[in-house]
C-alpha cells in the first residue's frame, strides 16, 4: 500500500473527538496521510540526562520520584503543586489547569520529567513540563529517554495529543507502506525505505536516524518535483526537441521590419530570433525565456517574434510591469510595426470607460492585432479573439499565477518571457524547470561600456560639476534617490527636495522634472515625453525608472545614497545610460558612513559591467544564509524540502528524475500528483530579486 492509499477516516484513530478533528483540520490535516505528513517542525533531544540541579543551563530531563501533593490558591485558581525529587535535588511542578495530574502523579511513583525550570519562592519549579510514566519503579531508567517531535499546533490540540495521534497512526499503518522511490535510488543514496523513514522522522531513536529520515523524505520530494518538471517539459515538446523544426530563417514580415531598421540586428539578437522561430514552427507551444543584459535589445526580438504570430492571423499580448514601460513599448510598436500594417493598442488600468470598452470590443473581434499593457491585460473582462502569443517583459516582476491567468485567455499560446535578471539555479530547476532559454550575447555595436565612479557625499559638488559639463555638451542626466520624500527630517536626500535644489540652485538653465510612483499616470507620461524630446534635460527619479526606460541621449546616471540600493537595482539603473553612442557615466554617491558590506557592493559595481557576473557576486555577498532565508524560499513551499536550502540535493534529484523519464516518460507515483498542483499554485516571487 502507498501512503495516499490509506483511506480510513481520521476517526479510525482512537481518541479523536470532533474538537480535536476541527483543530487538525485547521492545520490542513484532513486525512491520515496528511497527519503522517505533518512532519515535526523541530525535535527535542531528551536523550541526555539533565538533573534538576542543572536547571539553569538547560531544560531538565530527568527521572524523579513524587514526594508530596499540595494545593495552592482558591476557587478557580486552585492549583496542584507536586513536589518531586531526583538524585540531585528536589523541585516543584505547578500543574496550572491540569488538576487531573493529581491522579497521575501519585506519591511514591517515578516519572520521566522534561521541562524548563526556574527558581522562585525558594523552589526549583516548572509550570510547563512533560511527564512520562516509567515501567516498574523506574530505578533502571538511567538515560533521559528519547528524541521527541515538536509539531506545529493550532488552538484545540496540545503537543502531547498530537504526538499520541501521530504515534497511533504510525503503529497502525506505517509497516504496510511501500516505497515511493525506485529501489535503485534508495540503495544508491543509502536512504530509508518509506516505513522506517516516516517512523524516524516523527520518533527517531537517535539524531543520526532523524537526519537520515529527513534526507530520505527531502530527496523523495525533490525527486518527484523534478519528475513533474521533466514530464511537463516532455508534454509540451511532444517528446521531440523543438530545435529540429525548420531553419529559423526570418519570415517575410520579419524581413520587412529588419529592412526598415536604421541598424543591423546583432548576432545575439539574430540567433535568439532563430531559436524562437523554430519553437514556433514546432507543433507544441513555445515556452522560452529570453535573457539578455540591460540594453542588449530584447524589445526588438520580442517585436520580431510577435510578427511571426501576427503573420499567421493570431493576436499577441505584450505584458510589461509598469505603465511607463508599457507605454514606451506601445510607442515603439506604433513607430516600427504600424507601417507594416499591424494594428497595435495600449491597455492599462488607467484607461477608463469609453476608450476602454471600444478597445476591449476590438480585441474580442480581432480589430486589434497586438495589445501592449500592464497587468490590465489579464483582468477578467479582457477577451481575445485568437490569442496566440504572450510576451512578458521583465518577467521577474510577475508571479506564476499572473502569467498563468493571461495564458488561460488563449488556447495554448506561445510564451516568450524576457528578463535581464539571471534566474538563480534553483528557480531555473523548479518553477522554470520546463522552459527553454535563449541568451542574447553581446551588445549593439558602438556601445561604450558605462564608466562608473563612486564618490563620497561630501564630494558631491565634483559630481555635479561633471554632470554640468555633460549637460553643456547637450546630453541629459538622471538623478536617482531612494526616497520620494523624506518625512522624518533625517539627513537623507530625497527626490522631491533634490528636484527643487537641482532646478533652482545647481542647474537653473536646464529643464528639471520629477518622476516617481505617486504621480498620476498622465503627469508621468508628459514628463517622460518631455525628457524624451529633450525639453527636460534632468530627470529626478526614484527607482521607477529602474526597468526598461530607454532614452539614448541620456549619458549620466547619478545615484545618491547608492548604498541603499541592491546590486540588481544598481545594475538596472546604470543600464538606463550607455544606450547611445556617446560615452556614458554612472556616479554612485554614498553616505560618509558606509558599512563594510556597502563598500563591497559598490566595489562590485565599479569592477563589473556584466549583469550575470553582478548577479553572481550578489549571491556571494548575501551568502547562503540570506538566500536560504524566508525571502527566497517563499516561492515554492513543499512539505519538507526547500529547493533553495537543499539545492545540492535538488540537482542530484533532477539528474536522477530526468534519467528515469528517458526510459519511462510517464513515470510518476500518484502520491505526488499534488506537486503538479503545487507548482501551479506557487506564490508570485517578485521578492526573488537578484
Ligand atoms: P533591453 O534588452 O534592455 O530591453 P532595449 O530593447 O530597450 O534593451 O534596447 C536598447 C536600445 O538599443 C534601444 O534604443 C534599441 O533601439 C537599441 N537597439 C536594439 N537593437 C539594436 C541593434 N541591433 N543595433 C543598435 N541598436 C539597437
Ligand atoms: Mg527591456
Provide structural commentary.
The chain has 690 residues and is of the alpha/beta class. Among the domains are: 48-145, Nucleic acid-binding proteins (OB fold (Dihydrolipoamide Acetyltransferase, E2P)), CATH 2.40.50; 296-419, Rossmann fold, CATH 3.40.50.300; 451-608, Rossmann fold. The chain is 38% helix and 17% strand. It is built from 22 helices and 22 strands. It has a seven-stranded mixed β-sheet with strand order 6-7-4-3-2-5-8, with no helix packed on it. The chain has a seven-stranded parallel β-sheet with strand order 12-13-11-14-15-10-16, with helices on both faces. Strand 6 (118-120) and strand 7 (123-126) form a beta hairpin. Helix 5 packs across helix 6 (207-237), helix 6 packs across helix 21 (647-663) and helix 8 (267-281) packs parallel to helix 9 (298-311). The protein is globular, with a radius of gyration of 32 Å. The relative contact order is 0.09. Residues 263-266, 269, 292, 294-300, 420, 444, 550, 552, 579 line the site of adenosine-5'-diphosphate (ADP).
Amino acid at each position: 500500500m502507498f501512503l495516499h492509499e490509506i483511506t480510513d477516516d481520521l476517526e479510525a484513530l482512537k481518541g479523536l473527538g470532533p474538537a480535536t478533528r476541527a483543530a487538525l483540520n485547521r492545520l490542513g490535516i484532513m486525512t491520515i496521510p496528511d497527519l503522517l505528513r505533518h512532519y515535526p517542525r523541530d525535535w527535542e533531544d531528551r536523550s541526555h540526562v539533565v538533573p534538576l540541579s542543572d536547571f539553569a543551563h538547560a531544560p531538565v530531563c530527568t527521572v524523579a520520584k513524587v514526594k508530596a501533593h499540595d494545593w495552592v490558591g482558591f476557587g478557580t485558581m486552585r492549583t496542584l503543586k507536586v513536589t518531586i525529587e531526583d538524585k540531585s535535588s528536589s523541585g516543584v511542578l505547578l500543574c496550572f489547569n491540569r488538576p487531573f495530574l493529581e491522579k497521575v502523579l501519585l506519591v511514591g511513583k517515578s516519572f520521566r520529567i522534561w521541562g524548563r525550570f526556574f527558581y522562585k519562592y525558594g523552589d526549583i519549579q516548572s509550570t510547563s513540563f512533560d511527564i512520562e510514566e516509567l515501567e516498574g519503579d523506574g530505578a533502571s531508567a538511567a538515560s533521559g529517554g528519547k528524541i521527541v517531535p515538536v509539531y506545529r499546533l493550532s488552538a484545540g490540540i496540545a503537543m502531547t495529543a498530537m504526538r499520541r495521534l501521530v504515534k497511533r497512526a504510525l503503529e497502525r499503518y506505517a509497516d504496510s507502506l511501500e516505497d515511493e522511490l525506485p529501489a535503485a535510488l534508495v540503495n544508491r543514496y543509502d536512504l530509508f525505505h518509506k516505513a522506517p523513514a516516516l517512523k524516524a522522522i516523527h520518533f527517531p531513536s537517535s539524531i543520526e536516524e532523524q537526519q537520515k529520515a529527513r534526507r530520505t523524505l527531502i530527496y523523495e520530494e525533490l525527486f518527484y518535483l523534478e519528475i513533474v518538471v521533466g514530464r511537463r517539459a516532455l508534454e509540451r515538446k511532444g517528446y521531440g526537441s523543438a530545435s529540429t523544426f525548420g531553419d529559423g530563417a526570418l519570415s517575410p514580415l520579419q524581413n520587412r521590419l529588419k529592412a526598415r531598421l536604421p541598424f543591423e540586428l546583432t548576432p545575439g539578437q539574430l540567433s535568439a530570433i532563430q531559436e524562437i522561430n523554430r519553437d514556433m514552427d514546432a507543433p507544441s507551444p513555445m515556452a522560452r525565456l529570453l535573457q539578455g543584459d540591460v540594453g542588449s535589445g530584447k524589445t526588438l526580438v520580442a517585436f520580431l517574434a510577435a510578427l511571426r504570430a501576427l503573420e499567421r492571423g493570431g493576436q499577441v499580448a505584450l505584458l510589461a510591469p509598469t505603465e511607463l514601460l508599457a507605454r514606451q513599448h506601445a510607442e515603439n510598436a506604433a513607430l516600427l510595426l504600424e507601417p507594416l500594417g499591424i494594428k497595435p493598442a495600449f491597455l492599462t488600468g488607467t484607461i477608463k470607460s469609453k476608450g476602454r470598452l471600444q478597445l476591449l470590443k476590438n480585441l474580442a473581434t480581432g480589430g486589434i492585432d497586438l495589445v501592449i499593457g500592464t497587468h490590465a491585460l489579464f483582468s477578467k473582462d479582457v477577451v481575445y479573439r485568437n490569442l496566440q502569443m504572450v510576451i512578458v517583459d521583465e518577467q521577474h516582476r510577475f508571479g506564476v499565477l499572473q502569467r498563468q491567468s493571461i495564458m488561460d485567455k488563449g488556447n495554448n499560446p506561445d510564451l516568450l518571457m524576457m528578463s535581464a535578471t539571471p534566474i538563480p539555479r534553483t528557480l531555473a530547476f523548479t518553477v522554470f524547470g520546463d522552459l527553454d532559454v535563449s541568451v542574447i550575447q553581446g551588445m549593439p555595436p558602438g556601445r561604450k561600456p558605462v564608466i562608473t565612479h563612486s564618490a563620497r557625499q561630501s564630494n558631491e559638488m565634483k559630481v555635479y560639476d561633471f554632470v554640468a559639463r555633460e549637460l553643456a555638451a547637450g546630453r541629459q542626466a538622471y538623478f536617482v534617490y531612494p526616497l520620494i520624500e523624506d518625512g522624518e527630517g533625517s539627513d537623507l536626500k530625497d527626490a522631491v527636495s533634490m528636484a527643487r535644489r537641482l532646478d533652482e540652485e545647481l542647474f537653473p538653465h536646464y529643464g528639471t522634472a520629477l518622476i516617481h510612483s505617486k504621480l498620476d499616470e498622465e503627469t508621468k507620461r508628459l514628463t517622460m515625453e518631455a525628457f524624451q524630446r529633450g525639453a527636460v534635460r534632468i530627470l529626478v527619479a526614484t527607482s521607477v525608472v529602474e526597468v526598461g526606460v530607454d532614452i539614448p541621449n541620456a549619458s549620466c546616471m547619478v545615484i545618491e545614497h547608492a548604498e541603499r540600493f541592491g546590486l540588481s537595482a544598481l545594475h538596472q539603473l546604470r543600464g538606463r545610460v550607455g544606450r547611445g553612442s556617446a560615452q556614458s557615466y554612472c556616479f554612485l554617491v554614498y553616505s560618509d558612513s558606509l558599512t563594510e558590506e556597502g563598500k563591497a557592493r559598490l566595489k562590485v559595481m565599479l569592477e563589473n559591467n556584466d549583469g550575470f557576473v553582478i548577479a553572481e557576486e550578489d549571491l556571494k555577498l548575501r551568502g547562503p544564509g540570506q538566500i536560504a532565508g524566508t525571502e527566497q524560499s517563499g516561492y515554492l513551499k513543499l512539505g519538507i524540502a526547500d529547493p533553495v536550502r537543499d539545492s545540492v540535493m535538488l540537482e542530484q534529484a533532477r539528474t536522477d528524475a530526468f534519467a528515469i523519464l528517458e526510459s519511462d516518460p510517464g513515470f510518476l507515483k500518484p502520491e505526488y500528483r499534488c506537486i503538479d498542483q503545487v507548482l501551479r499554485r506557487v506564490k508570485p516571487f517578485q521578492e526573488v530579486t537578484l
